[in-house]
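Reopening this one. Same input as before:
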Amino acid sequence: MSQSRITGAFFVEGFLLFSLGVGIAKYLGSTIAWERVWLGILWVGCLQVGASFLWRQALRISKDADNGQLRSSSFSSEFLLASASFACLASLTVLMIAGRFFNLPLFLISVIGVLGTLVSTKAIRIGELDRFREVIISFLMAVLIPWFSFLLQTGELHRFLTFVALPMLALRIAMILSYQLSTYANDVHQKNQTLMVRIGWQSGMSLHNVLILFAFVVIAFGPLLGIPMAVGLPPLAALVLGLWQIWLMRRIAQGVKPNWRGLVWGGAAMYGLVVYLFSYSFWIR
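Same output, byte for byte:
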């Protein structure tokens, strides 16, 4: 999968996850304040754009170091574009504060989002947290974005957010592992410290399958936890794709010729379908 497609999917994913949080608020009876929706989308978009350029700069610096070149100036085009994005983010934050959109939970979510973005792009270092980049990004996307958009509308958290976030977080990490398995040999050769490389391909394949099973078990038990069946059951349709992913992984572990395209696109489709079905279920009711 090309880098341009991954970047494009990254922004589409952010939009869908944001709309999911708004959909949950609508389902629970909140009147949608559209000015908050558009400001929130712009806020998340600026954060994503800044993260994208910071990561590109980190990759360029790493590549220069591997090639034995002197470290280039920090004031690269990527850094300047990232700075512009964060300046827009700061301006939007001021507007939201002036409009009294922020409360303590939303403020904490926003701070965690910005810090997590800076850590995942290696713009700042906090211990060894940057080693868990894929997990941090998945948490920011699958958990914090829906929470952020929901808090913008309601000002308080709800148990539905946790129910939705847990399976989506698990499936997003599983999607990343399936992609990184397809690039495993090249990553080892290039010394790219991906999550799959760090934990090893055997452990990574097992973790991939466990995460998928965990996600759908949580979804299946939703009605027992008070989640309406009309909301909790539709995402189970993606279980077919989940079982397909597990079957492909088991075949690879048995030495069968890998179906990389099916594995990578299947993982993306599985995660995307769950996000879509959750969002659709909340919005139409």
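So the earlier flakiness isn't reproducible anymore. For the record, The first helix runs from residue 3 to 27.
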